[in-house]
Prior knowledge:
Elements: H1 18-39, E1 56-66, E2 73-74, E3 84-89, E4 96-97, E5 106-110, E6 122-125, H2 131-134, E7 139-150, E8 155-167, E9 170-182, E10 196-211, E11 227-245, E12 248-266, E13 268-269, E14 278-279, E15 282-301, E16 304-312, E17 317-326
Amino acid sequence: MVTAQDENDIVNFLASGQRDASKLMNAYLNPAIEGLSYGFNGGWYNTAKAHKTFGFDIGVTVNAVFISESQSYFSPNTLGLENISNFTSTAPNGMAPTIMGPEANTTYTLKVDANGDGQNDTFQGPRGVDFKETLKISGVLAPTAQIGIGIYKNTDLKIRFMPEVKTGSSKVRLLGFGVMHDIKQHIPGLRLLPFDLSVLIAYTQITGATGLEGEFNKPSNDTRPQVMDYDMDAWLFEALISKKLAVFTFYGGLGFNTIKTTSDVTGSYEIPGFPVAFKDPVSLRFKNNSARVNAGIRMNLGPVYLSGEYTLQEYSMVSAGLGVTVR
């Protein structure tokens, strides 16, 4: 999931000790973790109309999550660090880049002289990915492939997935399930009205890892890999409405996201200046909850459809989809 120029550079933070490293990693990763969690929880539907039994759709959606300029940087001076006396940055504002920030260099000065050369030790912090410059967007992209199939009484089972993707020393994969049910059929006064009304419950799990080998040695008696693991669990609860007019379907929804992410640095690390190797040194926890409202339009070209939507939530996003449906 971490995809910086040298994504395992994040392990450099361990040079500041376990407590400081946890704070620095949290500040550095937070915008991407939260942005991705909302992105991978989007694009579940483009109509509130359920399939007939054994009807199906197959599609691909890309969600682009917007991240504000303020989340491109963080200030180490506000984190209450114990072992760092100073830091410098080549960023114009003198702050440290988050993973979403620019490719600025940062140098952290420790309060110790482990080498005994009369100068306090330093280490280089990781640079940002600089999405705004490289991809011309201020955010993250979350692509998914999805299958929906009608199972019984206007109920769709949805399955989304992303096979394991590897880049550099990182890998990530996704699997999710959802159920959409037509509730208009259960409300006598609404049955004959010319629109569709459904509810959706969906769950997505994203797992990944970034290898951290190479920067710090490990004890000879510990053969476990040095790695940063990720595990993200995202739930979506939403009420949906849609109306078809000619080849267009207009749709919208009102719902709630709840997302929990864990990120652990595992393995053992021998850090200069610390007498004992760090074992499984960092464990991060992120939890996000947000109401959401979205609106979109789908163009139906026979069995092929194109869709686009905007979602207003804590991290707003736009989504685009392409697929085939047989009702």
